[in-house]
Amino acid sequence: MTIQTVVVPDLGGAETVEVIELGLAPGDSVEVEDSLLVLESDKATMDIPSPATGVFTKYLVEEGATVSVGDPIAEIEIADEAAPEEPQPAAVEEATADEQPVEAAVAEVAASSPASASELMVQVPDIGNDDKVDVIEICVAVGDEVSEGDTLVILESDKATMDIPSTHSGKVLKIVVAEGDKLGTGDDVALFEVTSEAAPAAPAAAAEPVPQAAAPAPVAAAPVAVATPQQGSTATDSAKEKTAGADVYAGPAVRLLARELGVDLTQVSGTGPKGRILKDDVSNFVKKVMQNKDSAAVSTAGGAGIPPIPAVDFSQFGEIEEVKLSKIQKLTAANMQRNWLNIPHVTQFDDADITEQEDFRKGLKAEGEKRGVRVTPVAFLIKALAATLQANPIFARSMGADGHHVVQKHYINIGMAVDTPRGLVVPVIKDVDQKGIWEISADIMDLAVKARDGKLKPAEMQGGCFTLSSLGAIGGNGFTPIVNAPEVGILGVSKSQIKPVWNGSEFVPRLMLPLALSYDHRVINGGDAGRFMTHLVKLLSDIRHLAL
Ligand code: CAO
User: Fold this and answer.
1) Of 158, 164, 347, 401, which is least packed with CB atoms within 10 Å of its CB?
2) CA distance 548 to 540
3) 473 Cα: distance to centroid of ligand 1 (angstroms)
4) Which of 345, 410, 521, 545 is catalytic?
5) pLDDT at 492
6) How confident is the model at residue 179 (pLDDT cuts 50, 70, 90)?
7) What radius of gyration, in Å, describes the C-alpha atoms of the chain?
8) CA dist., res. 172 & res. 170, Å (int)
9) Alpha carbons 435 and 150: distance in angstroms, whole number
């Protein structure tokens, strides 16, 4: 085994840098290219990768120390066959001699292919890698005036994130790459109208050289640079808005982790020096998101820019206890929030005169007892809803997922909200249009019992076209139900009451049933809802129409 000392590599122009992150513990295994520590200048942050596979032994610096090129920073133990033949300093020299500031490389390549006397095509410099790498961010837009050194695009390989800076000041005429494209050394990036004094043919001196992500050297692999927030990024505000991620202050290892986990780094708060995002910040962000997802039912986190509801310590006001939510309650809360936020709701109200219907229903009591079926107003509501849906099929539609089409259902299945000790469930009565009041009443009883006993099968809660939520047995004058997406309509029914109704010559006592129809205004217009409600009220007020 050989102990190998890792030294600070060429810093691409910076004289000294600060040690800002020491992430390994003695005994940690490292693969070649794994990040050993992170250095930071006032322009860039650099992951220092391990030059070989082995075991990390110790750091030779402390966090916060200032180091310069050639300073020993860490030791790793590597198998003898993996040790480089050359002693380390030579290897470093070799590595740094091979390195070339990116800007100079860009200038050279660009100078070789000017598009016209004042136009310049900026190309990818030697990225020390034969493979093409991903364009992860475009940091400028056509028409932007950019200054020399501004980041044009950010490339990312599985080892490094690289800012490709502009070699000249000027105006962006054309961007010839898109996010997700793969680029290699010498590929075109953007066409410029050059306004800087330096002619394209004369490569500009590298004013702010950015260290190049070169191929790993035997001992001191080239650092990988990432712009700090203060760095050059002086592209126009419009470009910044489009590419907010370009302003994110994070090292390549963190960016890679974020990309692997699908984390948008602009959403992550950095806890490192100067707000730098650390791996822990990304992990904590993911944990928080997963916890919110898990308990989405009670999420108080703000979504879509909505400020979160502040957490309050209620115990300061008196005795409290935490009551766990059931799975159904959590699901219901998540679904309600989803439906409320996604659907533009409108609720329309009316009263149906059910005086005669109630007389008829009460007259069915004796036969119902013989049949073992209890007929409640809910059975008439469901029967009337089926006929109303047939007459107004727009309410049996669902919005297509792409927003470009709706789905028209040619079956009539009606969901019925059931209040249970574990929470709200919605079993579905199938093919209601083909059933009579007795059959519907039997279905209501059967499904309500199963719902309260927690014995509903998933298939019994699927396939609804429309939902009925009846609070009639409980009470209330009215409420605005939330649409049960992907359905587009729901009827809320409150408690019937005797009310004085003007019959043209006098007030007469009538049994009035309060109805509230909520609908998805993306699919249903007020006129559609008005026709639906009028039809329903007519059927409920004179159930003879149901037989027609
Ligand atoms: N007005 C006045 N009385 C009504 C009524 C109304 N709109 N609807 C039902 N009733 C009466 C019935 O006449 C019956 O009384 P009688 O036995 O004296 O005739 C009694 O209430 C029946 O109540 P029920 O609840 O046992 O049966 P139901 O068929 O009316 O309702 C069901 C079944 C499953 C819809 C209901 O039990 C239920 O769970 N409702 C709650 C739905 C809910 O929670 N909605 C909110 C969802 S959003 O949070």
Assistant:
1) 401
2) 13
3) 4
4) 521
5) 98
6) confident
7) 35
8) 7
9) 72
Paired with 35 in beta bridges are 49
The residue behind tokens 């309260």 is: 452
- How far apart CA 397 and CA 406 sit, in angstroms, is 6
**Alpha carbon of 469 to those of 85, 265, 391, 426: distances in Å?**
79, 43, 21, 9
Instruction: Find where tokens 């996010």 sit.
Output: 179
Considering only CA atoms, which residue is closest to atom 10 of ligand 1?
A: 473
Ligand 1: nearest atom to the Cα of 469: 45
Ligand 1 site-directed mutation target among 470, 480, 482, most atoms within 8 Å of CB: 470
Please give the residue that has the higher pLDDT: either 404 or 276. Answer: 404
Q: How far is CA 543 from CA 72, 379, 385, 491, 515, in A?
A: 92, 12, 12, 18, 16
Q: Crossing angle of helices 526-541/355-363, nearest 10°?
A: 50
pLDDT of residue 132 exceeding 80: yes
For ligand 1, is residue 446 a contact (CB within 6 Å)? no
* Each residue's pLDDT tens digit, 265-288: 888 888 876 677 888 888 888 887
Is 513's C-beta closer than 6 angstroms to any atom of ligand 1? yes
Q: Counting atoms of ligand 1 from 1, which one is nearest the CA of 447? A: 34
Instruction: Give the CA-trace dihedral at 400, 402, 403, 409, to 10 degrees.
Output: -10
Pocket of ligand 1 contains residue 496 by CB under 6 Å: yes
Of 25-34, 67-76, 94-103, which range is least confident? Answer: 94-103
Closest Cα partner for 425 from 461, 466, 479? Answer: 461
End-to-end CA separation in angstroms for the chain: 94
Residue 234 to residues 148, 153, 194, 241, 327, Cα–Cα distance (Å) = 9, 13, 16, 12, 50
C-beta separation of 38 from 251 below 8 A: yes
Torsion of CA 216, 221, 226, 230, to 10 degrees: -150
The two three-digit tokens of residue 468, written as one number:
């009925």
Q: What was the pLDDT predicted at 225? A: 41
* Ligand 1 lined by 469 (C-beta under 6 Å): yes
d(CA 16, CA 8): 10
Tokens of 40: 């930071």
Please say if the pLDDT value at position 111 is more than 60. Answer: no
The kind and range of the H/E element at 377 are: helix 377-391
Q: Which residue has the tokens 């028409």?
A: 143
Q: Is the entire prediction scored with pTM above 0.85?
A: no
d(CA 155, CA 157): 7
Q: For residue 418, which atom of ligand 1 is closest to its CA?
A: 39
Active site residue 405: no
Q: Residue 460: pLDDT above 80?
A: yes
Residue type, position 217, single letter: A
User: Tokens at residue 199, please?
Assistant: 């002619």
Task: Decide if 180 contacts 262 (C-beta within 8 A).
Answer: no
